């Protein structure tokens, strides 16, 4: 089916190249993870591509329970500090892009990973994040003087306790002048073991669900079947209490997801986006990661807001509607 759709995909993409260069502060957007491969280019280059609305700097891999916090940005700067990134962060923000620090990730660093020992420990970690990455003060800010827009929770190992307390403590630092944005990247398998309690607080501004490396709730590249993904989106994640902005998290290449879930861009545009865009809390697409995103975001950018193809293919949505 993907081959049959390719001519339509190419024609519409060429017609909409101009719109792909225009980023809107309103409506749906694209989020990306940056920081886990030294060959992915600079943070500033990612932001100047014009393809992203949110960039998650990945990852703060270990913290809590008395550990010395460990920032791991792979080949970009080991060990931290990575203070040279301060000016690049400010460039991204000047372009209207929200830049967040991502906690956790898929593998531990030298420490024990992200482990919160108690509600008090969660408040201590929130204070550390505020003073070292957000709007507070510290003599040893790992990313320099730049003030990040918020914190992303990508907790995939360690303990599942007290992440709701951390969300509440971080949210408490928001003021009328500066909001602390919170995002979460749960696995699509529902409910997420680590983040369910935190997401249910309703404090998260963005939830980008990882619909990959999880066969029960991802697109099948082998069969071309999207039923598992669409069932998970419509029956579990879209109705999730407190999730006001829901993102479709996808791998930007087959190599980005060893356990599957990659969706060819023409299939995403013609079969998946027209369905998920029909839900009121649809807010865009998240991609793992900048390194793997050779052309994926450029291909889907004109369609993420739901303008062009959605309306040329409404019949597709009906044929894939999920009860």
Instruction: Note the total helix count.
Output: 12
**E-strand count:** 9
Radius of gyration from the alpha-carbon trace, in angstroms? 19 Å
Share in helix: 25-40%
Assembly of the depicted chains? single chain
Strand neighbour order, sheet with most strands: 1-2-4-5-6-7-8-9
**Strand composition percent:** 15-25%
Shape: globular
Q: How far apart are the termini? A: 23 Å
Largest sheet: 8 strands, parallel, barrel
Identify low-pLDDT runs. 1-26, 308-323
Average pLDDT level: 89
Topology as H/E string? Answer: HHEHEEHEHEHEHEHEHEHHH
Structural class: alpha/beta
Describe the protein.
With 323 residues, the protein is an alpha/beta fold. It has helices spanning 2-15, 17-20, 43-48, 85-94, 119-132, 163-171, 196-199, 227-237, 265-276, 296-304, 308-312, 314-319; strands at residues 29-34, 54-62, 70-71, 98-105, 150-155, 181-184, 206-210, 246-251, 282-288. An eight-stranded parallel beta barrel has the order 1-2-4-5-6-7-8-9. The longest helix has 14 residues, at 2-15. The chain is globular and about 50 Å long. The two termini are 23 Å apart. The relative contact order is 0.15. The model is unreliable at 1-26 and 308-323 (pLDDT under 50).
């Amino acid at each position: 089916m993907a081959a049959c759709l390719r001519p339509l995909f190419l024609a519409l993409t060429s017609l909409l190249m101009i719109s792909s260069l225009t980023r809107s502060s309103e409506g749906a957007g694209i989020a990306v993870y940056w920081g886990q491969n030294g060959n992915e280019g600079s943070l500033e280059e990612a932001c100047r591509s014009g393809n992203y609305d949110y960039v998650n700097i990945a990852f703060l891999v270990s913290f809590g329970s008395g550990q010395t916090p460990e920032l791991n940005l792979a080949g970009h700067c080991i060990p931290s500090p990575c203070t040279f990134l301060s000016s690049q962060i400010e460039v991204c923000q000047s372009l209207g892009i929200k830049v967040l620090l991502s906690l956790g990730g898929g593998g531990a660093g030298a420490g024990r990973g992200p482990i919160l020992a108690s509600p008090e420990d969660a408040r201590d970690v929130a204070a550390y994040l505020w003073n070292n990455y957000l709007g507070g003060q510290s003599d040893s800010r790992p990313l320099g003087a730049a003030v990040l827009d918020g914190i992303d929770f990508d907790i995939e190992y360690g303990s599942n306790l007290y992440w709701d307390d951390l969300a509440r403590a971080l949210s408490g630092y928001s003021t009328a002048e500066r909001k602390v944005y919170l995002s979460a990247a749960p696995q699509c398998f529902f409910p997420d073991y680590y983040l369910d309690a935190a997401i249910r607080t309703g404090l998260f501004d963005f939830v980008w669900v990882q619909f990959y490396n999880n066969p029960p709730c991802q697109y099948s590249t082998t069969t071309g079947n999207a039923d598992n993904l669409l069932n998970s989106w419509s029956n579990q994640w879209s109705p999730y209490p407190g999730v006001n902005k829901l993102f479709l998290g996808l791998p930007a290449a087959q190599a980005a997801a060893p356990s599957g879930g990659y969706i060819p861009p023409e299939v995403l545009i013609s079969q998946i986006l027209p369905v998920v865009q029909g839900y009121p809390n649809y807010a865009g697409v998240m991609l793992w990661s900048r390194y793997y995103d050779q052309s994926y975001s450029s291909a889907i950018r004109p369609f993420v807001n739901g303008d062009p193809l959605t309306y040329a293919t409404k019949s597709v949505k009906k044929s894939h509607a999920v009860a």
